[in-house]
Design a protein that fits this description.
Elements: E1 2-15, H1 18-28, E2 34-44, E3 47-55, H2 58-70, E4 74-88
Antiparallel strand pairs: 1-3, 1-4, 2-3
């Protein structure tokens, strides 16, 4: 039996330093959304770019985005909707 579709989201985050990458990993661990991909790469001048894919409803996605914006070392957060993933039950 198939369940409802789960929205897929992509977050692109730029942070000012490597410890911020570690803070974001801690922030997303054990939350209501499922992380399907996490990638970090140095962007130069000490900054890092993160790509984060997750499945979450709008409420959880809004909460994640708000949590990211609260970190003082976050320079930019972009959120994009991906494809919906069919859930099975």
């Amino acid at each position: 039996m198939h369940g409802s579709a789960t929205p897929s989201l992509k977050f692109y985050v730029t942070v000012s330093d490597l410890p911020s990458v570690q803070r974001i990993l801690g922030l997303i661990t054990g939350r209501a959304y499922q992380i399907t991909r996490f990638e970090a790469e140095e962007a130069g001048a000490g900054t890092w770019r993160l790509a984060l894919d997750c499945t979450a409803d709008d409420r959880d996605a809004d909460l994640l985005e708000a949590r990211l914006h609260r970190l003082p070392t976050i320079l930019r957060v972009d959120r994009r909707r991906g494809l919906s993933l069919a859930g099975t039950g």
